[in-house]
Specification:
Strands 1, 4, 5, 6, 8, 9, 10, 11 and 12 form a 9-stranded mixed β-sheet that branches. The chain has a 6-stranded antiparallel β-sheet with strand order 20-21-22-29-24-27. It has a 5-stranded antiparallel β-sheet with strand order 26-25-28-23-30, with no helix packed on it. The protein is α+β, with helices and mostly antiparallel strands. The relative contact order is 0.12. Helix content is 20%, strand content 38%. Helix 3 packs across helix 6 (200-208).
Length: 441
């Protein structure tokens, strides 16, 4: 069996911790039994491993998520990245094209698609096993997971079981209005949990209606020819034979601050001074104190990307307030470590200066590269490593300062956790001003 984990969208409802590059599924806030914390995607991969599911996992994600996934899950992770975000149908079609055309798996291979940001428990993965078993019987061409609803929500699709055989879906309705949702609940409907099971050939044939490609490389190169539409609308609503299994257990989408705060092990994280607060969750990623004094039922979050103060009950509509914020990410997790922007200034004559703090993980390296529009100054403040400047290698450590002019070739490798301050200077300080070259350490 193959499991495709869908890495979600930008997650603006968890701003400012979620910034478009670091999205909700990568926030390391969920408590583990050993006292450490993990992200939603780390939790899901761990739970699949612990469940006994004999499955190979493929991550389907935006290209901008590549480094975060490699950093959190390791370089051996099987990852398919979208050239651009188009919706769940194209993302699933691309992952299936990879399994079919790159890995050459047979058409009868069983595939189960799961969202990577579902907060759930052991019974959920037993339901996944049952999905695979229903697919194996060929009683249905597409199998869904029904979740017992708690309200007539307009955020989910609804499936109504056949009274004569509950493993068959009588009807499927994607995101009805509230009146129709209430009517469906009276008919015994379940929420669609966003999990889908099918034979690989089923999706291959649907995708090839749009892109009859010979290879995965060709399919990916023609990715924009796929319609920008959800899997529910493009496939589930049009399926001739829909099957279902049902799950009645812990199942949450931690997509808002209110739902996420309910699963944290502490009401404060980071440098927070809490004095006389009530039902307030405060998270501070800055190196300055955040004081909550007599606050009630608030979300307070501070990161390099901004500061949020919100009523917990109003946090669902946060996306509408931050959608117009169009700034470069001030924190990013990369395959080699992470960085945060400390300062960014532009002078009247167009000259700019950008200051970052970067940390490389032991053994990790920044690629051999050069810049056309900027020069850089690196000041090493902790750890040890090796730097290469125009082919010459030397050691660096705490207290060393390195000037890197425009067009100078340079690379860096950490021997221990290595932290340094980078000051970029020039007239066009963008991440795209980089040209990479092969280099063997």
């Amino acid at each position: 069996m193959q499991i495709i984990l869908l890495s979600g969208g930008p997650g603006k409802r968890l701003w400012p911790l979620s910034n478009g590059t670091r999205t909700k599924q990568f926030l390391k806030l969920l408590p583990k039994t050993d006292g450490s914390h993990e992200s939603m995607v780390q939790r899901m991969v761990r739970q699949i491993g612990e469940s006994g599911l004999e499955a190979e996992i493929t991550l389907a994600a935006a290209a901008s998520h590549h480094d975060a996934i490699i950093s959190q899950l390791g370089r051996e992770t099987q990852l398919v990245t979208e050239p651009e975000r188009r919706h769940t149908f194209p993302a699933i079609a691309l992952a299936c094209a990879y399994l079919s055309k790159e890995k050459h798996l047979p058409d009868d291979e069983i595939v189960v698609v799961l969202p990577c940001d579902t907060f759930t428990e052991t019974g959920y993965f037993e339901a996944v096993k049952r999905m695979a078993q229903v697919v194996e019987t060929d009683a249905a061409e597409l199998v869904l997971m029904g979740i017992k609803p708690t309200e007539p929500s307009t955020k989910f699709g609804y499936l109504v079981p056949d009274p004569a055989d509950s493993s068959i879906v009588k009807s499927f309705t994607e995101k009805p209005d509230s009146e129709r949702a209430a009517e469906l609940l009276r008919m015994g409907a379940f929420w669609n949990g966003g999990a889908f099971g099918f034979r690989l050939g089923y999706m291959r044939r649907i995708a090839e209606r749009y892109i009859p490609a010979e290879s995965f490389a060709e399919f990916r190169a023609r990715y924009t020819e796929l319609p920008r539409i959800s899997f529910d609308y493009e496939v589930a609503e049009k399926a001739r034979r829909l099957g279902a299994v049902y799950f009645d257990g812990q199942w949450k989408d931690l997509g808002t601050w209110e739902t996420l705060s309910n699963e944290l092990d502490h009401s404060t994280i980071g440098y927070v001074i809490d004095n006389g607060t009530s039902e307030t969750t405060a998270i501070n990623e800055l190196n300055i104190p955040l004081v909550c004094h007599g606050t009630q039922h608030l979300i307070v979050a501070a990161s390099p990307d901004g500061i949020l103060v919100a009523d917990k009950t109003k946090a669902d509509s946060l996306k509408e307030s931050v959608v117009t914020i169009n700034r470069r990410p001030m924190f990013e997790e990369r395959r080699w470590g992470s960085y945060k922007v400390i300062d960014n200034i532009e002078f009247p004559d167009g000259y700019c200066a950008l200051t970052k703090q970067l940390t490389l993980n032991p053994g990790a390296a920044i690629s051999y590269q050069r810049h056309t529009f900027r020069e850089e100054v690196w000041t090493f403040i902790d750890g040890t490593g090796e730097i290469v400047l125009d082919g010459e290698r030397r050691s660096v450590g705490r207290g060393d300062v390195v000037n890197i002019p425009k067009m100078q070739m340079h690379a860096l490798r950490a021997l221990t956790p290595l932290t340094f301050i980078e000051v970029q200077k020039g007239t066009n300080l963008i991440e795209e001003d980089i040209e990479r070259f092969p280099f063997e350490w």
